[in-house]
Amino acid sequence: MIKRGFASDNNAGVHPDIMKEFLAVNEGHVVGYGADPYTEQAREVFREQLGPDTEVFFVFTGTAANVLGITGVTRSWNSLIAAETAHLQQDECGAPEKFTGCKVLTSETPDGKITPALIARHMHGFGFEHHPQPGVISITQASEMGTVYTVEEIRTMAGYAHSHGMYLHMDGARLANAAVSLNLPFRSFTTDAGVDVLSFGGTKNGMMMGEAICFLKPGLSEGFKYIRKQGMQLASKMRYISAQFLAYFRNDLWILCASHANAMASMLEDKLKGISGITITQPVQSNGVFVIMPDVVAEKMMKHYFFYSWNEFTSEYRLMTSWDTTEEDIERFTFLLKQEMAAASL
Amino acid sequence: MIKRGFASDNNAGVHPDIMKEFLAVNEGHVVGYGADPYTEQAREVFREQLGPDTEVFFVFTGTAANVLGITGVTRSWNSLIAAETAHLQQDECGAPEKFTGCKVLTSETPDGKITPALIARHMHGFGFEHHPQPGVISITQASEMGTVYTVEEIRTMAGYAHSHGMYLHMDGARLANAAVSLNLPFRSFTTDAGVDVLSFGGTKNGMMMGEAICFLKPGLSEGFKYIRKQGMQLASKMRYISAQFLAYFRNDLWILCASHANAMASMLEDKLKGISGITITQPVQSNGVFVIMPDVVAEKMMKHYFFYSWNEFTSEYRLMTSWDTTEEDIERFTFLLKQEMAAASL
Amino acid sequence: MIKRGFASDNNAGVHPDIMKEFLAVNEGHVVGYGADPYTEQAREVFREQLGPDTEVFFVFTGTAANVLGITGVTRSWNSLIAAETAHLQQDECGAPEKFTGCKVLTSETPDGKITPALIARHMHGFGFEHHPQPGVISITQASEMGTVYTVEEIRTMAGYAHSHGMYLHMDGARLANAAVSLNLPFRSFTTDAGVDVLSFGGTKNGMMMGEAICFLKPGLSEGFKYIRKQGMQLASKMRYISAQFLAYFRNDLWILCASHANAMASMLEDKLKGISGITITQPVQSNGVFVIMPDVVAEKMMKHYFFYSWNEFTSEYRLMTSWDTTEEDIERFTFLLKQEMAAASL
Amino acid sequence: MIKRGFASDNNAGVHPDIMKEFLAVNEGHVVGYGADPYTEQAREVFREQLGPDTEVFFVFTGTAANVLGITGVTRSWNSLIAAETAHLQQDECGAPEKFTGCKVLTSETPDGKITPALIARHMHGFGFEHHPQPGVISITQASEMGTVYTVEEIRTMAGYAHSHGMYLHMDGARLANAAVSLNLPFRSFTTDAGVDVLSFGGTKNGMMMGEAICFLKPGLSEGFKYIRKQGMQLASKMRYISAQFLAYFRNDLWILCASHANAMASMLEDKLKGISGITITQPVQSNGVFVIMPDVVAEKMMKHYFFYSWNEFTSEYRLMTSWDTTEEDIERFTFLLKQEMAAASL
Asked: Measured at the alpha carbon of residue B99, what is the angle toward residues B96 and B100, in degrees to the nearest 5?
C-alpha cells in the first residue's frame, strides 16, 4: 500500500498534462544543453510572464535554484540575510555556504516572513573589512510557513535592500501558490515589486523536476551560464525541463494546480478547526497548514499518513496539500485525527 | 526542421520504454528524496549488477556524478589524475576544482586512455605538505575518444592506484557502450576489476536524465548523503529517476540501446573509410568516430548536421551515434560528405 | 602624535623580551617551514603546557587559527555552533564559511558565553540529510565580552558536544588573560576540561604575530599539515614564530603580560564606576571593559583615544587594555571622560 | 650544529637592518589592521616604485600573495594558465584551486618560462559554457628555474593575455633578484610592461615575512580588502610587516641583498663548471643553480648541506643562494662536492 499523505507537495506525482508534453517533444534530435527550440520557447514564455528583461536559466532542484541564483549576484565575502525558517538556512545542508562562500544571517520570525525591523540588526558593518558585507536579502514566497507576502511588503523589502546596495532574492519554490493566493500575475509581485533574482519553482506544483532561475534586471546574469555549468546543473537533454514549463504555462495549468492545492489547505484548516485540542499556528494563505497536536497523537497518525514534525520542541507539525490532494483525503485524515484526539484525551 | 545529427548521444530523445515507466510510477503519493519503493528497487538492481556492497546514489548530471563521487573519497588537499581529454578536465567548467578543492593533474594520451607510464610523472610528493596529495586516478569508460579499456587495463590502473594509497574512479557516462563493446557484464570491469567509485551513466543511452554514483566497496559512502544534498543533487521526486533505471535494466533495454549505437558507429566508420581524404584517428570501439576533415567541408556539413569540432588545431571532428541513429542517417550523412569532399578537392 | 588608546590589545607593540628572541634565533641557516630546532622546542613547550598528546601547528592570525583548526575536524556538511558575538561570526568576514564550507549557527547570549540551554535549539536534525550536521561547538576564552568560562562550564560544554558526537573548539585569542583570571594553568581548562581543538593566541598578549592551533587528542590532526599549507598559513621562516612562543613561555612572560592587562582593566572598571552616567555592562574578568555612554561623548573621546563601538544600537563601547597599558593612560582617560560626561549633561 | 646550505633563500635569517626597523616602530600604540602611519608610508613607497595607480595589500606568505591576488581578478569559472614548474602548480598544495575555485592549466617549459606558443593549446573554449574560461596567465619572475624574463618577453605575454581579455599575473617571490639581474627598476618590467597583478616578495630576500599583493591598474583592487580578510591574511599588528618594507626600500637594501645572492649564484656556477661530471641545466640568471649530479653523491652532500631534489626522475638538484651566502660557503661546498664526485667515479 502506498500511503497518501500531507508530508510535502513533492510527494505528489506529475500532472498528466506535463506527462503528455514529454511525449510531444520526444521526437528526433535537438541540440543539447539548452540550444533547442523548446527551451527558446520556454524562455520566451518567462519573458512574457515576468517582463522582457528576464533572463532565465533552468536547473533541477530548488536548492540549486536558490544557491546558484544567489551566487550570480554575490562574491564570497557577502552575507545573505533571511528568515530563520528559510529553506536555504534549514533544508539545504549548507549548500549556500559551501557554494557561495557567503555567511548566512537569519532572524526569527513569527510567521516565516521578514521585515526591515526584524533584520535590521544584521544591517551593519558596511565597508568594514572584518565583517561580511550584506549582499542579499532572501525572502520566500509563499513562505515556509505557508504565509504570503503582499505586494507592498515585497516592495518594502526591495526598497530596503536596494537602499543598502543589496539585492532582493525571492525563493519561489511555491510561487504559484502565492500568486493564486494573491490573485495576481507573477510579474506584479516579483519584477514589478523590485525583486532582482527569483527561484521560480515548478516541481512542487505538478512538474516532475524543474526550477527556473530568473534574473529580472539587465546585467545581473552576466557570466551566469558558467555558474550553472560549474554548479553541475546544466541539463544535457534540456528539452525535457523546458517542455514541462511549456505545459505548465499553457492553459494556465499552474493556476489549476495551485488553486486546487490552496483550496484543499483551506478545507483542511476548516476541518481542523472543528477538532478539539488542535491549534492552528499560522494563517493559512497557501497550501500549508501548521498545527500543534500531542506527540502521541501525531505518532499514531503517522502510521497512516506521512507528514513531518516542524518543531520538535513545540509539537508543531506541518501538513501540506498538493495539486492531487482530494477532498476524501482530508475527510479521512480529519476523521481519524478527531478519533485519536478523543482517545488521547480520555 | 529539426536536424538530426552526430553531435552527441544526448541530442537523442528518450527511449519509449523509459517514457512508459514514468506513467507506471506516477500514481499516488510516495515519500520524496528517495525513501520510496521505486528507489529501493532500483538500488537493489544496482546491487545485482555491480555486487552486494554497492551503495548507489542517483543524481541528475554526469558532471555531478563525477564531481560528487570524487568528493566522497577525497579531501581538498588531494589531487586527481586523469587524461588530458577527460570530461572532468575539459567539459565541466572547473566544477571538480570548485567543489572538491582538489587540483586536477592530466597527461596527454594518444587515445583517451591513461596508463601507469603516462601518469607516473604526477605520482610524487607523497607526504610532502607543499604538494597536493595524489588521491584519485580517474579513467573514462568508454573514453572520451570512443576507446574502451580492457579488463586487464582497468585492473592495472586499480592496482597502481591502490599501491599508492589512492582510489580508482571511473567516469562511466558511456558505460553501457563499453560493456557492449567488451561483451561483458558491468561488474566484471568495474567492481571486480578494482574500481572504487563509479559514475554510471544513463542519460546518453536513452534515459531522460539520470546518473548513478556507485561506491563499490564498503565504507566509501560514509557521509555521502550529505555531500549529495549539499551538492544540490538530491531529487525531491526521486521516483522519476529511479524508475528510469528500472526500465533501463528490465529486459536489457540498456543492451538494446548501446548495441545499436555501437553498431551504427561501426557502420559509420565503414562508410567513412570509403571516402577519400577522410582520416579516422581512433579505433572505433564504442559509439564515437573521430575524423580529420577539411574545415571548409566540416562547415558545409554542419549546415545539415550538427556535430562538434574536437580539436580546432588539427581539424579533428567528433561524430557520435546514439540509440536512435538510423542507417538512413548514416547513408545520407556519408553520401553528402563524399560529395562535399569531392567538391572541395576540385 | 601617535595616540594611545583602548581600541584593542593588538594596537600595542611587541614586548621587548620577544624582540630580543628574534635576535637570538637569527643566526645562520635553518630549514624552512618548521623543520628547525626552534620550532621543535616550541612544540615541546606546548606539550608541556597542554599535555603530551598535543599536536601544535603555528599560523599567523587568529582568524586562521580558528578557521583551519575547525577545518581539521569537520567536513563541509557540518555546522558550527557559537555565540552570536563570536569572533568567527562577527569579525572574520565569512572566512569560516568560505574555507570550511560549513554553516555557522549562533545564539544570542547575555555575556558572550554559551550554555547547553542557549544552543539547544541548534541541536537537531542529526542524521537528516537536508540539515547541516552539527559538528563543532566553539567557545571563546576569554569571551569577546571579556567574560571567562569556569572549568566547570567548559567541562559541561565538552560533555554536551561529545554526547552529540561533536567536537569542542576553543577560540583562545585571549587565553592567557583567561588563565590569569582563573589563576589556573592552561591545561586545566583546555585539555583536561575536554577541549578538542584550541586556537592558542599570542599576538594580543605581547607577541608580534603568532597563533597556535592545538589538537589536544590523538588522531585529530591527521592530514592537518596539508590543511595549513593549502590554507596559505605555512610560514617559510617558521623560526620567527616559534621563537616568539619560546620567549612567551620562558620565565612566564605570558603571565606577566596578561596579569598586567587584566589589572589595568580592573583599575579602569573602578575608575569608570565613579563616573556618573556610565554603565558597565559586563563583569570585568579579563582585559576588556564594556560600557554604555552617550554617543556624543564617545565621539569626543575618540578624538583623543582610539576605541571601538561595540553595539551602535545600544551605544555600547568596548575598552581593551593590554600588556603595555599604563596607570597614567587610565587616569587620563577617565579624567577626560568625567569632564566630557559632565559637559554633556549640562 | 646548524648546517648552512643551499636549500632555499628562506633558510637564511633576517637582515640586521630589518631587525632594527622592528625596534624603530615598536613604540606605543597604533591602530591595527593597517590603518597606521607605517603602513601608509609603505604604501606610498610602493606607489613610488611601481607607479601612482598601484594598490598594495600586505600578506604573510608567497602562497597567499599568489592565491589572493589572483582571486581578486577572477571568478571561479575561470582558468589560470602557468608553467608546469610554477610555484602555484607544484608547491601550494592546491591552494589556488581551493580558494579561487579555478582550474589551473599548465604547459611544460624548457626553462621555467612560458611563451604564447607554449600555452596556445590552452587558449580555447572562450564563451563555451562547458569549458573554464581562461582568465589569468601567471608568470614567475625570476622563474622557479632561476631564469629571468626580459622586458620584451613580459610585454609579449601581457599583450597576449590582454588580447584574449585575460589578466597577466606575476609571481615575484624573487622579484628583487630579477630586477638586479635585468639591472632595471621594478616598474619597468612590471607595471610598464603590462603586468596587472603582482606578488611582490620580500621574505626570500632578507625579510622575516612579508609579501605584497600589488594591483597595478585602477579598478582591479575593488573589494580586495574583503578577499584578504576572508583569506585569513590581514595582519592585526600590520606595522611589523610594513616596517620591513620601509627598511627594505630604504638605502636600496633590496639591491644589496639581491645583488649579493645573485653574485653568489654566479660564483657557484663558476665553481661547479670546474667539477667533472656535474651538469648545469639552466642559465644562471638570478640566485638559483640547477645541476644534475649522481644521486649517491647528492645523498652524501646532504649530510653536510641541506638542499632539495628538483626532479627525482632526472637526478636534478636545486642550489639556492641567499643574501647571507658567503664565498666560504661556496668554496667549502664545491670543494667537498669535487671530492665526492671523484670518489664516486672510482
From this structure: 70
Longest dimension (CA), chain B: 66
- Amino acid C108: pLDDT: 96
Q: Which of residues 239-278 of C touch D (CB under 8 A)?
A: 240
Structural domains in chain D, sorted by start:
16-251 (3.40.640.10), 253-344 (3.90.1150.10)
pLDDT tens-digit readout, B89-101 = 999 999 999 999 9
Using a 10 angstrom Cβ sphere, with 0-12 exposed, 13-18 middle and 19 or more buried, the burial of residue B77 is: buried
pLDDT above 60: residue B191: yes
What phi and psi, each to the nearest 5 degrees, are found at residue C294? -60, 140
Instruction: Decide if C222 touches B, using CB distance below 8 A.
Output: no
The residue type of A297 is V
**Beta-carbon separation of A130 and C92 below 8 A:** yes
pLDDT (mean) for C192-218: 98
Q: Is C233 on the interface with D (CB under 8 A)?
A: yes
pLDDT at A308 over 50: yes
The answer to whether the Cβ–Cβ distance between D124 and B312 falls below 8 Å is: yes
How would you write chain B as a 3-class SS string?
Answer: CCCCCCCCHHHCCCCHHHHHHHHHCCCCCCCCCCCCHHHHHHHHHHHHHHCCCCEEEEECCHHHHHHHHHHHCCCCCEEEEEECCCHHHHCCCCHHHHHHCCEEEEECCCCCCCCHHHHHHHCCCCCCCCCCEEEEEEEECCCCCCCCCCHHHHHHHHHHHHHCCCEEEEEECCHHHHHHHHCCCHHHHCHHHCCCEEEEECHHHCCCCCEEEEECCCCCCCCHHHHHHHCCCCCCCCHHHHHHHHHHHHHHHHHHHHHHHHHHHHHHHHHHHCCCCCEECCCCCCCEEEEECCHHHHHHHCCCCCCEEEECCCCEEEEECCCCCCHHHHHHHHHHHHHHHHHHHC
Binary contact (D229, C13; C-beta < 8 A) = no
* Mutation site for D-interface testing, chosen from A33, A71, A75 by largest number of D Cβ within 10 Å: A75
Each residue's pLDDT tens digit, B218-256: 999 999 999 999 999 999 999 999 999 999 999 999 999
For A16-54, the DSSP string reads HHHHHHHHHT-SS---STT-SHHHHHHHHHHHHHH-TT-
Residue B2 has pLDDT above 50, yes or no: no
Nearest by CB to residue D93, choosing from B94, B97, B129, is B129
Flag whether pLDDT at D1 surpasses 90: no
Nearest CA among D83, A227, D105, D119 for reference residue B90: D105
Q: Judge contact between B45 and B246, C-beta under 8 A.
A: yes
* Inter-chain CB proximity D2 and C27 less than 8 Å: yes
Q: Which of C91, C101, C121 sits opposite A131 (nearest CB)?
A: C91
pTM for the predicted model, two decimal places? 0.97
* pLDDT 10s digits, D212-250: 999 999 999 999 999 999 999 999 999 999 999 999 999
- At C69-113, the pLDDT tens digits run 999 999 999 999 999 999 999 999 999 999 999 999 999 999 999
The closest of D221, D248, D157 to D195, measured between CA atoms, is D157
Nearest by CB: D230 against A33, A76, A228: A76
| Chain A, nearest residue to C63 by Cα | A130
Cα–Cα dist D63/C234, whole Å = 9
Cβ-Cβ pairs closer than 8 A, A with B, add up to: 166
Residue C263: CB partners within 8 Å, gap ≥ 6? none
Nearest CB to C61: which of D13, D93, D234? D234
Q: What nine digits make up the cell of C224?
A: 592537518
The single residue listed with the C-alpha cell 569571551 is C143
User: What letter represents residue A46's amino acid?
Assistant: F
